[in-house]
Amino acid sequence: MKNRKSLSGGDDNNDINISPMIDMVFILLIFFIVTTVFVEESGFGVDRPNPVDQPEPQDEDQESVTIKVDKNNQIFYNGEKIDRGSIRPKVSQVLQADKEAPVVVEAEDAANAGLVVSVMDEARLGGAVVISLTSSAK
Fold it and tell me: How buried is 107 (Cβ within 10 angstroms: 0-12 exposed, 13-18 middle, 19+ buried)?
């Protein structure tokens, strides 16, 4: 009976030390906080119309600049095919006569988004302050 251990008493210390686990959790937390990258992506703002609002009536005699980008990434100005470099002079020519002439870029759904943005940039460099972007599903 000397080899038996007593269930009721004894010096056995069965406590689990959790301080190393807590230290490891804090180290992992600090690691994830430090390695997380907080980046704000830059872009340009888009004013989307409210679907409840009625569209403003446009003057029929007011000349507008309409530039269309089709699914084959071709650029059209008033129905004639142009290249990207001739957008700026055409826009500035119309805006010299009427500084408030609307500039509309109409892009088909399959058009290259980079080309549409570069067309908008060329129109802005031509003097357009407000550029409307529309979509056509052809």
Answer: buried
Q: How many residues does the chain have?
A: 138
Distance CA 119, CA 69 (A): 9
The values of phi and psi at residue 12, to 5°, are -65, 125
Q: Which CATH architecture has domain 65-136?
A: 2-Layer Sandwich (3.30)
Question: What's the pTM?
Answer: 0.56
As a whole number of angstroms, the distance between CA 61 and CA 42 comes to 38
Query: Which one-letter amino acid corresponds to residue 120?
Result: M
What are the residue boundaries of the structural domains of the chain, listed by start?
A: 65-136
The upper half-sphere exposure of residue 32, i.e. CA atoms within 13 Å in the direction of its Cβ, equals 5
Q: How far apart are CA 106 and CA 111, in angstroms?
A: 10
User: What band does 15 get if pLDDT is binned at 50, 70 and 90?
Assistant: confident
Indicate the pairing of strand 103-108 with strand 131-136.
parallel
106 CB neighbour count, 10 Å cutoff: 18
Q: Which residues does residue 37 pair with via DSSP β-bridges, in sequence order?
A: none
